[in-house]
Specification:
With about 775 residues, the chain is mainly β. It is built from eleven helices and 54 strands. Bound molecules: 2-acetamido-2-deoxy-beta-D-glucopyranose (12 copies). Keywords: Cell membrane, Glycoprotein, Leucine-rich repeat, Membrane, Receptor, Repeat, Signal, Transmembrane, Transmembrane helix.
Length: about 775
C-alpha cells in the first residue's frame, strides 16, 4: 500500500489510515481466508504521480480486480509488470494520463474478462493487439477507445478475437485498412463501436450476423454497409449509429424487424426519398437523428379516427398507419433535409422531448402548437417557411428552454412592451429576420446569455445600456446587423465576445473597441466618424475586421499591420483615411484580403506588403498613391485580385523579375493612372491563371474561408467579390498613357472576359 501513500496527493479516501487493517479500507477487497488483497477500486480518487515499475502495487499478486481509472499518473508508461497479475479478471486503466506503448505483456492476463485501456496518449502495435486477441480467451469486454492504432493492421490484429467477446469499442483509434468481417459474426457480440476511424474500410456481412448485437456504431468510417440486410438481420438492435457512412443518393431502406430500436443516427448521409416511418418502431424510440440528408415528404399526422384517436399516426401521402406516437422521444433531429408540410402538433406535445431540431427544411404553417412543448430545452426551427405572428411571451411557459432559434422564416415576432417576465435558462437566442421592432426586454435578466442574433430586423434607436450589460462574462456571439440602430456606442462591456457584427445600421460616433477576445468584428456600413483609436491594436485575436463604408478619418495606425498574428481580412474601404499606408506588415503574416479602396491615402506603396505571402485580394483603388508599378508584388503566389485604379501611379510597367509573375491573378485593374510605355507583353504571356479556366477556383475564398471559421452569417462580406469573380476575369488598363501596339498574346488569354485598353495611345487591332 506504500505506493498509494506516495501517490495520493490528496487523501480523498477518508478511511485510509496507516494503522488499520488495509482490508477495511474503502475500495479494498480481501479474500476471506488468506487475507490477500483481491480487489482495488481507486477510480477517481485523485491519485497523482508517476507509477513506477518498482511500485509496491505490483507485489499484490492476487489482485483480481484493479480500477485505476480517472486519476492522473502524469504520463507514466503502462508498466509491463501489469502482465504479472495472473489472476486478474477486471482491469480498468482508462483516462488516467498513461502514455506510450501498451505492453504486450497484457496478453499474459489470460483470465481477463474486462479490459479498459481507453486513453488518448497510448499506442498499440499489431503484435500486441494480436496477442491480446489470441490469448485472452475469456475476454468479454474490450475498450481501447482513443488508443493510437495507426500502425495496426486490423485484418491481422483482430482476426482471432474470442467468441466470448460481448463488447468491443475502438472509437477514434486511427485504424485504417480492412476491418475483418469475422468480428461481425462473433456469436455473443452485443456492442460494437468503431466510431470515427475515417480510413477504416471493409464491409458488413451479407449473412450470418451476430444476431445478439444491440448496439452498433460505425459512424464516420468507410465500411460499406447494406442497410437493408443489416436491419433485417439484427433484430435485437437498440442503438444504430451510422452517421456519415456514405449512403449518398440511396433510399432509406430499413426492414421492419427493428422492433427494439431506441436510438437511430443516420445523419449526414445524403439519403434521398421519404422517411419510412412505418418501419421504425416509434413506440420505443428515444433518439432519432436523420439530419443532413436529402429526405422529402411530410411528417406523419395523428389519425383522425374516433376509436383510437390520440395514439396512432398515419402517413399523409399514403394514408397508411405508421404506428404509435413516440411518447418516449427525447431527441428528434431532422435538420437540413427537404421536409415539408406543417409541423404536426403531436411533435410539440411529446412529453419527454428535450431536443427538437427541424432547421433548414421547407416546413410551413404557423407554430402556435410550440407553446405546448413544455419539456423542450433546445428548439431550432430556423430556415423554414413557417409563418404567422409569434407572441414571444408565450415562450416563457417553456421553463427549460435553453436554446431558441426561429430565424429565417416568415414569422412576425412581437413583444409586449417592457413586459415583466424572465427566461432565466435561455442563453442562446437567434431571431434573425423575424420582423422584430424592439430589443427583447426580458433579456435584461439573462446574465448567462452566450449567443444573440437579432440581425435583419427593424429595430430602431439606440442599443440600450441594459443590453450592453447582459452576458458580460458569457456572451461570445452577437449579431445585430441589418437593423436601424442609431446613436453612439461608447464601449462594449462583453469580456468574452468572439464574434461581433453590427454592420448595416445607422450607428454614429467613434469606433468602439471591443474586448481583446474578439476575432470577428464588423461595423461596416454605418455612420462612424473620427480617427481609429490605437487601442484597436489591443485586439490581438482578430481574424476579420471590416470597417468599410463609414466616414472614419485620420491616419491608419501603424500598428494595424502587426497587432494580430491571426489577421486575415482587413477591410477599411470607403472611408476618409489620410496619410500613408502603414508599412508594418511583418514577415509571416496571414493577411488574405487588404482593402483600402476609396480613401485619401497617399505616398508610396509600402515594401512590407511583400511579406503578405497569403494575400489573395489587394484593393488600393481610388486613393492618391504616388509610386511606380509594384513589380515586386508579382511574387505573391496567391494574389488573385490587384486593383490599383484611380491613383497617381506612373511610369512603365517594365518586365517581370520572376519566372511565374502574378500566376494566380484574375483581376488586374490599373486604370485611371499615369502609367506609360508599351503594354507589358511579358506579363501578359505569363498571366497563366487567365489562360486556363480554373473552375474550382471560382468558388474563391468565400466558401472555404467561412467553412474554416464556421461563421455562416458573414458570407455576404464577400458576395460582391465572388460575383465579380465568377462573372469577370478582367484586365483594365484604360485611361493611362500606354503607347505602341496591342500585342497578339492577348488573344491567348482564353478565359479573359473583360478587357479594357481604352483611352491610351495604342495602335493595332485586337484579334
Ligand atoms: C523506483 O524507481 C524510480 C525510478 O526508476 C526511483 O526514482 C525510485 O527511487 C524507486 N523507488 C523505490 C521505492 O525503489
Ligand atoms: C498528464 O501528464 C502530463 C505530463 O506528462 C501533465 O503535463 C498533465 O498535466 C497531466 N494531466 C492531464 C490532465 O493531462
Ligand atoms: C498466453 O497465456 C498464457 C497463460 O494462459 C501465457 O503463459 C502465455 O505467455 C500467453 N501468450 C502470449 C503470447 O501472451
Ligand atoms: C486518411 O487517409 C488520408 C489519405 O491517405 C490521409 O490524408 C488522412 O490523414 C487519413 N486520416 C486519418 C484519420 O488517418
Ligand atoms: C453462415 O453460417 C452457416 C451455418 O453456420 C454456414 O454454413 C455458412 O457458410 C455461413 N455463411 C457465411 C457467408 O459465412
Ligand atoms: C423479419 O424477420 C423475419 C423472421 O423473424 C423474417 O422472416 C422477415 O423476412 C424479416 N423481415 C424483413 C423485412 O426482413
Ligand atoms: C446539409 O447537409 C449536407 C450533407 O447532406 C451538408 O453538406 C451541408 O453542409 C449541410 N448544410 C447545413 C446548413 O448544415
Ligand atoms: C381506426 O382505429 C381502429 C383501431 O386502431 C382501426 O381498427 C381502424 O381501422 C381505424 N380506422 C381507420 C379509418 O383508419
Ligand atoms: C411536399 O413535397 C412533396 C414532394 O417532395 C410534394 O409532392 C408535396 O405536395 C409537398 N407538400 C406540401 C404540403 O408542400
Ligand atoms: C417585476 O416584477 C417583480 C416581482 O413580480 C416586481 O418586484 C418588479 O417591481 C416588477 N418590475 C416592473 C418593472 O414592473
Ligand atoms: C490596450 O493596450 C494599451 C497598451 O498598448 C494598454 O495600456 C491598455 O490598457 C490596453 N487596453 C485594454 C482595454 O486592454
Ligand atoms: C509624386 O512624388 C514625387 C516625389 O516623390 C513628386 O515629385 C511628384 O510631384 C508626385 N506626384 C504627384 C502626382 O503627386
Amino acid at each position: 500500500m506504500i505506493f498509494l501513500m506516495v501517490l495520493l496527493g490528496r487523501t480523498d479516501v477518508d478511511s485510509w489510515t496507516k494503522d488499520e487493517d488495509c482490508c477495511a479500507w474503502s475500495g479494498v477487497t480481501c479474500e476471506g481466508v488468506t487475507g490477500h488483497v483481491t480487489g482495488l477500486d481507486l477510480s477517481s480518487v485523485g491519485l497523482q504521480g508517476i507509477l513506477h515499475s518498482n511500485s509496491s502495487l505490483f507485489s499484490l499478486g492476487h489482485l483480481e480486480m484493479l480500477d485505476l481509472s480517472s486519476n492522473d499518473f502524469m504520463g507514466s508508461s503502462i508498466s509491463s509488470k501489469f502482465g504479472g497479475f495472473v489472476s486478474m479478471t477486471y482491469l480498468y486503466l482508462m483516462f488516467s494520463n498513461f502514455t506510450g506503448r501498451i505492453p504486450s505483456e497484457i496478453s499474459h492476463l489470460s483470465k481477463l474478462v474486462e479490459l479498459f485501456l481507453s486513453s488518448g496518449k497510448t499506442t498499440i502495435d499489431t503484435l500486441s493487439m494480436k496477442r491480446i486477441a489470441q490469448n485472452l480467451t475469456t475476454l468479454e469486454v474490450l475498450y481501447l477507445d482513443f488508443v493510437d492504432m495507426s500502425s495496426v493492421v486490423p485484418a491481422d490484429a483482430f482476426l482471432n478475437l474470442f467468441s466470448s467477446l460481448t463488447s468491443l469499442s475502438l472509437t477514434l483509434c486511427n485504424l485504417h485498412g480492412k476491418f475483418p468481417e469475422t468480428i461481425f459474426h462473433l456469436p455473443n457480440l452485443e456492442s460494437l463501436n468503431l466510431l470515427q476511424n475515417t480510413n477504416l474500410t471493409g464491409s458488413t456481412p451479407k449473412s450470418n450476423w451476430s444476431s445478439p448485437l444491440k448496439s452498433l456504431a460505425l459512424s464516420s468510417t468507410k465500411i460499406s454497409i447494406d442497410l437493408h440486410i443489416l436491419t433485417s438481420n439484427l433484430k435485437s438492435l437498440e442503438i444504430l449509429r451510422l452517421q456519415e457512412c456514405n449512403f449518398v443518393g440511396s433510399h432509406l431502406e430499413l426492414s421492419g424487424n427493428l422492433t427494439q430500436l431506441m436510438g437511430l443516427d443516420l445523419s449526414g448521409n445524403s439519403f434521398v426519398g421519404l422517411i419510412p416511418w412505418s418501419l421504425l418502431n416509434l413506440e420505443r424510440l428515444i433518439l432519432l437523428d436523420l439530419s443532413n440528408n436529402m429526405l422529402v415528404g411530410e411528417l406523419p399526422e395523428i389519425q383522425s379516427n374516433s376509436t383510437n384517436s390520440f395514439s396512432s399516426l398515419h402517413d399523409s401521402s399514403k394514408k397508411q398507419l405508421v404506428g404509435s406516437i413516440p411518447v418516449g422521444l427525447n431527441m428528434l433531429n431532422l435538420d437540413n433535409n427537404s421536409l415539408n408540410g406543417t409541423i404536426p402538433s403531436w411533435v410539440y406535445s411529446l412529453p419527454s422531448l428535450e431536443y427538437l431540431w427541424l432547421s433548414h427544411n421547407q416546413f410551413s404553417g404557423n407554430i402556435k402548437a410550440v407553446f405546448q412543448s413544455l419539456s423542450l430545452s433546445y428548439l431550432d426551427i430556423s430556415s423554414n417557411n413557417l409563418s404567422g405572428v409569434v407572441e414571444f411571451e408565450k415562450f416563457r411557459k417553456l421553463r427549460s428552454l435553453t436554446l431558441l432559434d426561429i430565424s429565417h422564416n416568415q414569422l412576425m415576432v412581437s413583444f409586449q412592451n417592457f413586459s415583466n417576465y424572465t427566461m432565466p435558462k435561455l442563453d442562446f437566442l437567434h431571431m434573425s429576420s423575424c420582423h422584430i421592432t424592439q430589443f427583447p426586454y426580458f433579456l435584461r435578466t439573462s446574465p448567462q446569455l452566450t449567443s444573440l442574433d437579432l440581425s435583419d430586423n427593424q429595430i430602431q434607436g439606440n442599443v440600450p445600456t441594459w443590453l450592453l450589460d447582459v452576458g458580460i462574462d458569457s456572451l461570445s456571439y452577437c449579431i445585430l446587423s441589418h437593423n436601424f440602430l442609431t446613436g453612439t456606442i461608447e464601449q462594449f462591456m462583453w469580456k468574452n465576445i468572439a464574434v461581433l457584427d453590427l454592420r448595416s445600421n445607422l450607428l454614429a460616433g467613434k469606433l468602439p473597441i471591443p474586448s481583446p477576445s474578439t476575432y470577428f468584428y464588423s461595423m461596416s456600413n454605418n455612420h462612424l466618424t473620427g480617427p481609429l483609436a490605437s487601442t484597436l491594436c489591443n485586439l490581438t485575436s482578430l481574424k476579420v475586421i471590416d470597417l468599410s463604408t463609414n466616414s472614419l478619418s485620420g491616419k491608419i495606425p501603424q500598428c494595424i499591420g502587426t497587432f494580430s498574428r491571426h489577421l486575415s481580412v482587413l477591410d477599411l474601404h470607403m472611408n476618409q483615411f489620410l496619410g500613408k499606408i502603414p508599412s508594418t506588415f511583418p514577415k509571416g503574416n496571414i493577411l488574405r484580403n487588404l482593402n483600402l479602396r476609396g480613401n485619401r491615402l497617399e505616398g508610396a506603396l509600402p515594401q512590407s506588403l511583400i511579406n503578405c505571402r497569403k494575400m489573395e485580394v489587394l484593393d488600393l483603388g481610388d486613393n492618391k498613391i504616388n509610386d511606380t508599378f509594384p513589380n515586386w508584388l508579382e511574387s505573391l503566389l496567391l494574389l488573385q485580385v490587384l486593383i490599383l485604379r484611380s491613383n497617381r501611379l506612373y511610369g512603365p510597367i517594365g518586365n517581370p523579375k520572376t519566372r511565374f509573375p502574378f500566376q494566380k491573378l484574375r483581376i488586374m485593374d490599373l486604370s485611371h493612372n499615369q502609367f506609360g510605355g508599351p503594354l507589358p507583353i511579358k506579363y501578359f504571356k505569363n498571366l497563366l491563371a487567365m489562360t486556363i479556366l480554373q473552375d474550382e477556383e471560382l468558388k474563391y475564398m468565400g466558401d472555404d474561408y467561412y467553412q474554416d471559421n464556421v461563421i455562416v452569417v458573414m458570407k455576404d462580406l464577400y458576395v460582391e467579390l465572388v460575383k465579380l469573380q465568377t462573372m469577370f476575369t478582367t484586365i483594365d488598363f484604360s485611361n493611362n498613357a500606354f503607347r505602341g501596339e496591342i500585342p497578339r498574346v492577348i488573344g491567348e488569354l482564353k478565359s479573359l472576359k473583360g478587357l479594357n485598353f481604352s483611352s491610351n495611345k495604342l495602335t493595332g487591332l485586337m484579334r
